[in-house]
Design goal:
The chain is an alpha/beta fold. The chain is built from 13 helices and 15 strands.
Length: 388
């Protein structure tokens, strides 16, 4: 049988629960023996073999002859591995000023990348830009275009992945926007719309730090303060898709108004815009974040105070998150990581002050994420949607 992309997609989507678990395990941990797949999934080796066979026949999985025994005499281990170029996924990150897009294989290795500036924030203009970058990616892929199996698009804010509706995105100025349907109609491929931090967490869960880590959280610092949660082997989205929104915890002075329109949000103090506004007000002129960083490094009191206040409230928000969810690791990412020296001491102090009991043992590390990494996260979300 000739397995084209449509046939492979149907095979994956119609797989049993056991088949989906086996494919996801091979996808994220290959090369891996059938014995280890059984250990990871809790399935019998017979069930694993049954699930692997159609994947091999479809060219999605490679199963070379067994060459070793994996420490179990008489039971040869036949390592299986994903065939990365069996499918191509597109990942698109919508920023306030541009669209970043990548084409990846099934292991989220980037094959082609593109960027497109945004002239406007209205959904139609953003959809136009996404269509343009998809066209550019397809030109770059050439013959591999036929292998495109889906497109992941990530947007900041309250995103309902099940319906494709952006309920609220303060950064984009959207409310109850049926953006997924718009993209589905225009792009001609299955579209997965996801919150940007959740998509980044999916990427880390399947292809990054999440492998071998029982639980972790990602906290992003920049234009917004976002968070994604990975607990008990799953990325947590919650019933309404807004789990982990620590940027809108009401921990700040109620006099501080957030871009979302609410009062006292963490973002009202700690976002890039909030820091710029505080330093600008102190100096009586417009100051962008790059100048604010330079001023803080030079010892300017207003800039130092703005970063210190932001760091304290982020540290308190992380402690709140850790007290509630109990992850073993918190990864701090986003564009603010490049200036983490201005946050670190105060942030860690606030975390230590508010983390309860053993929760204080949670490790906090930084990991710079480029915008291409965010786009790869969107591609990973599309892969996850296909598999599950």
């Amino acid at each position: 049988m000739d397995y084209d992309t449509a046939t492979r997609t149907t095979l994956i989507r119609s797989a049993s629960d056991a088949g989906s678990r086996v494919f996801a395990t091979i996808l994220t941990r290959s090369p891996i023996s059938r014995i280890d797949i059984a250990r990871q999934t809790g399935l019998s080796q017979a069930a694993v073999t049954k699930a692997v066979s159609p994947l091999v026949a479809a060219g999605l999985v490679d199963a070379p002859p067994a060459t070793h025994h994996d420490g179990n005499p008489g039971r040869p281990a036949a390592p299986v591995s994903i065939v990365p170029d069996a499918m191509v996924m597109l990942g698109i990150k919508v920023n306030v000023d541009e669209v970043i897009a990548v084409a990846t294989d099934l292991a989220t290795h980037v094959l082609v990348s593109e960027r497109q500036p945004l002239a406007a924030h209205d959904p139609q203009a953003v959809a136009d830009a996404i269509v343009d970058v998809v066209d550019a990616l397809e030109r770059g892929l050439g013959d591999k275009t036929a292998a495109i199996a889906g497109i992941g698009v990530s947007v900041s804010g309250d995103v309902d992945t099940a319906t494709g509706i952006v309920r609220e995105s303060a950064i984009m100025g959207w409310s109850d926007e049926d953006f997924g349907a718009t993209l589905q109609e225009r792009l001609g491929h299955p579209v997965t719309l996801e919150n940007d931090v959740h998509a980044l967490t999916v990427g880390e869960h399947w292809f990054g730090v999440g492998l071998g880590t029982a639980s972790f959280a990602i906290v992003t610092i920049g234009r917004g303060i976002g968070s994604g949660l990975h607990l008990n082997g799953q990325v947590v989205t919650g019933a309404y898709g807004v789990s982990g929104e620590i940027g809108h915890l009401p921990l700040a002075d109620p006099e501080r108004v957030c871009t979302c329109g609410r009062r006292g949000c963490v973002e009202a103090v700690a976002s890039t815009g909030a820091i710029e506004a505080a330093v600008s007000a102190a100096h009586g002129r417009a100051i962008d974040i790059e100048e604010a960083v330079r001023l803080a490094h030079a010892g300017d009191p207003a800039a130092e105070d703005a970063f210190r206040e932001a760091a304290a409230i982020i540290g308190t928000a992380i402690a709140t998150l850790v007290n509630l969810a109990g992850p073993e690791l918190v990864i701090i990412g986003g564009e603010g990581v490049s200036n983490f020296d201005l946050f670190e001491q105060t942030l860690r102090g606030a975390f230590d002050e508010h983390a309860f009991g053993a929760a204080a043992r949670c490790r906090i590390v930084t990991r710079p994420h480029t915008f291409q990494d965010w786009a790869r996260g969107a591609a990973a979300a599309a892969i996850q949607s296909l598999v599950r």
